[in-house]
Amino acid sequence: MALLSQLLPFVFLIAIMYFVIIRPQQKEAKSRKEMIESLQKGDKVVTAGGLIVEIKKVEEKFLTVSIDKENIAKLVKDSVSRKYEDEI
Predict the structure, then answer these.
(1) What is the pLDDT of residue 87?
(2) H-assigned helices in 1-88
């Protein structure tokens, strides 16, 4: 019984860490993965470097993107930060 009373605070701290740190990170990773999988031609995204680009072609691991009317580049899917929505 004494061992249980000594371990209980550690179990409690681990439970708190799970619900405060680990679980939200897992939810964020899942929603980011779903966002990247849902990207389509014509979507505008913000890259990790801060560029706003338009998707021209979706491949398995890469995106072909247009920076402007003349410049086209390939982008690794993992470097997409978020979708860009024009907000006024």
Answers:
(1) 56
(2) 2-17, 23-37
Whether the Cβ atoms of residue 81 and residue 48 lie closer than 8 Å to each other: yes
pLDDT, tens only, 38-56: 999 999 999 999 999 999 9
Residue 40 phi/psi, 5-degree rounding, is -135, 165
7: which 2 tokens? 């371990």
Question: For the chain, give me the number of helices (H) and strands (E)?
Answer: 2, 5
Six token digits for residue 49? 């470097």
Are the CB atoms for 28 and 45 separated by under 8 Å? no
Domains and CATH numbers, the chain: 2-83 (2.30.30)
First to last CA, the chain: 63
